[in-house]
Amino acid sequence: MQPSSSDTTTSPRMAVVVACVALFTDMLVYGILIPVLPLLPTVTEVGPSATGLLFAAYAAALVIVTPVAGRVVDRRGPRGPLLAALAGLACACLLFTIGGPYWLLLTARSLQGAAAGLSWVAGLSLIAATVPLQRRGACLGLAMSMVSVGVLAGPPLAGWLAELGGHSAPFLFAATLLMIDGALRLAFVRPTPPPCDDPATAMDVLRTPGCWSVVALILIGAAVTSCIEPVLPMQLAQGFGVGATGIGLLFALLTLVGACLNPLVGACLPRVSPRLPALTGVAAAATGLLLVGAGPNLPVIAAGLVCLGAAIALLVAPASALVGVQGAKATPPAIGGAYSLYNLAYAGGLFIGPTLSGTLTERIGFAPACLAMASLLVLSTAMFTRLPRKLAAMPG
User: Fold this and answer.
1) Mean pLDDT value across the chain
2) How far apart are CA 340 and CA 65, in angstroms?
3) pLDDT digit string (tens) for 292-320?
4) Terminus-to-terminus CA distance in the chain, angstroms?
5) Which of 15, 177, 193, 392 lies deepest, with the highest CB count within 10 Å?
6) pTM for the model
7) 168 with 99: CB under 8 angstroms?
8) Which of 58-72, 261-275, 299-313 has the lowest mean pLDDT?
């Protein structure tokens, strides 16, 4: 028998609030780590390659846990995974406050990624299970926008707190936010069955014609975002004497440019070929990497970060729109499956970017590594020839 009382069902409005707060908190912790983690003594001792692996561990755990989380949510609903994700992220924050040894930080980073896999799948599924289909796309988009807000707020906040109270201060602050987040999940998320009107999976979307080029675009956009995270903070600290606050502000500049340009690029997509912003994004990313790698002073490096921020919008905005089109083309149409595929592809980019940049920096140096990554980006443009010429002409 279907419950009818509001006390035993999750309100659609509160489902959106809980999912938005969950994604914001997750990405705030992700952003907090950018200016703090590479500067920890334990991390600086192991070198750029191990630092890249430390950053990539988040994405590896996210990729592994996401399919498992999908099955658990399908069988038991989103409440249990949301609470498990909260506990995992809280444990990760507490481990980060210790600051070492390296294996403990690697464990914490993996635990953070696993918590993200549970939280993302369960949060978006909660919206899909409670919000009517005609309003679901807009609510899912609102929840995904919290990702940018969290990443934007994390680095400058972490830098400021770290200089005031040491490396543990940002994580103690995050733990406080987690208590508020946890109260929302406990109070407002009721046992909720998975949606029955959107049964397709990420694999169903992946089998639609033309999907692999869209996946490549998502992956490249994520790799551009993440490749400088493990290596640039140390370069700024050692080469230019920039502290944690300055590093956080520079990364916030990157994210702010991307967040501001993203809706503008999205608004242009119905009138231009998706190939145009994608190719322009690759050019901006390659330019940004060259400026960041060879910049003789902070203004040049800041200009490079502006280029990288613009590249993120130019790559991610068409990717987000195109993956929705692929979901509309799937049989049956799949909003949830499209978002799952987007998350998996994005996590793949988050793994490749730090791993590649850390390895290259350790072997050939920071500036040559940036040149090498810019060259690989230019070569990747061959994949974009399979992107659709017009977004408006496609189904959905």
Assistant:
1) 83
2) 12
3) 998 889 999 999 999 999 998 888 878 87
4) 35
5) 15
6) 0.80
7) yes
8) 261-275
pLDDT digits (tens, 9 = 90+) for 85-141: 999 999 998 888 888 799 999 999 999 999 988 888 888 778 877 877 667 666 766
Instruction: Read off the pLDDT of residues 143-170 as tens digits, 9 standing for 90 and up.
Output: 767 777 787 788 888 888 888 888 788 8
If DSSP states are collapsed to H, E and C, what string results for the chain?
A: CCCCCCCCCCCHHHHHHHHHHHHHHHHHHHHHHHHHHHHCHHHHHHCHHHHHHHHHHHHHHHHHHHHHHHHHHHHHCCHHHHHHHHHHHHHHHHHHHHCCCHHHHHHHHHHHHHHHHHHHHHHHHHHHHHCCHHHHHHHHHHHHHHHHHHHHHHHHHHHHHHHHHCCCHHHHHHHHHHHHHHHHHHHHCCCCCCCCCCCCCHHHHHCCCCHHHHHHHHHHHHHHHHCCCCCHHHHHHHHHCCCHHHHHHHHHHHHHHHHHHHHHHHHHHHHCCCHHHHHHHHHHHHHHHHHHHHCCCHHHHHHHHHHHHHHHHHHHHHHHHHHHHHHHHCCCCCHHHHHHHHHHHHHHHHHHHHHHHHHHHHHHCHHHHHHHHHHHHHHHHHHHHHCCCCCCCCCC
Token pair 């003789």: residue: 296
The token duo for 199 is: 């049964």
